[in-house]
Amino acid sequence: MFFIAAHTTGAFGEQVRPMPDMSRAHSYIVVDEQDFSAGYGRTRKSMCIASTADTYIARAHTIIRAAVDLQKRTGADYVQVAMTPIADIGCSDYFTAVAEHSPDGGGVAGNLRNHYWQVQASDIVLDIEERLVLRAWQEVKADFETHGEVDTEGITRHLGRQLNLSPEEVKNFWLRSVEMTITLRDYSVQ
Questions:
Q1: What are the backbone dihedrals phi and psi of residue 108, each rounded to the nearest 5 degrees, phi first?
Q2: What residue numbers bound the domain in which 69 lies?
Q3: Can you give the pTM of this predicted structure?
Q4: What is the DSSP secondary structure assignment for residue 48, as one 8-state letter?
């Protein structure tokens, strides 16, 4: 079986794009939502979600569904969505997937051509110890930050004592979280 995706023309000649594949999307919860519209009339919304999606495809489909849902609900010209591995750590540093969607193809500012989607996802799944260390890391990070610099050695020693792990184990578990974010790779939205 195969599908043929064709662009059709709607009322007044605007191009209607087919819905992207979301067949492997998981449920998600909204962690945070913001409006970052500028004063020039373009409506821009962002959302942070958490989900149990644990594969590259499932994360890509879930982040696409969340972007479509946000856009439909708000009517925004541009939306961006980030997926965090742990709901209560927020979306400031660690991501399992990210998406940008602009229904008119204009991107964030409205002046691009054919910038409908940009989606990235990771297939790295954090185990229970890595999740524990990441949550603890985020809780104490501010205490070890000076002028924007984080004392990673100090955090690893502190968390090692707190969690009964060696500093090396703490650092390796935390680095797995960092690896998850830096290994995000493009997903082609059809």
A1: -65, -40
A2: 8-124+181-187
A3: 0.87
A4: E
Angstrom distances, CA of residue 105 to CA of 42, 121, 165, 184: 13, 21, 49, 23
Look up residue 17 and give its two tokens. Answer: 């794009």
First to last CA, the chain: 17
- Say if residue 58 is exposed, middle or buried (CB neighbours under 10 Å; 0-12, 13-18, 19+): buried
Strand partners, 150: 145
Full pLDDT tens readout for the chain, 190 residues: 222 233 333 444 445 678 899 999 999 999 999 999 877 778 999 999 999 999 999 999 999 999 999 999 999 999 999 999 999 998 889 999 999 999 999 988 888 888 899 999 999 999 999 999 999 999 999 999 999 899 999 999 999 999 999 999 999 999 999 999 999 999 999 7
Q: What ranges make up the beta strands (E) of the chain?
A: 8-9, 15-16, 28-35, 44-51, 78-84, 97-101, 117-121, 145-146, 149-150, 185-187
Contact indicator for 75, 86 with CB cutoff of 8 Å: no
| 104 and 141, same domain (yes or no) | no
3-state SS assignment for residue 10 = coil
Looking at the structure, tell me whether residues 119 and 136 fall in a common domain: no
d(CA 80, CA 66) in angstroms, rounded, equals 9
Neighbours of 132 (CB within 10 A): 17
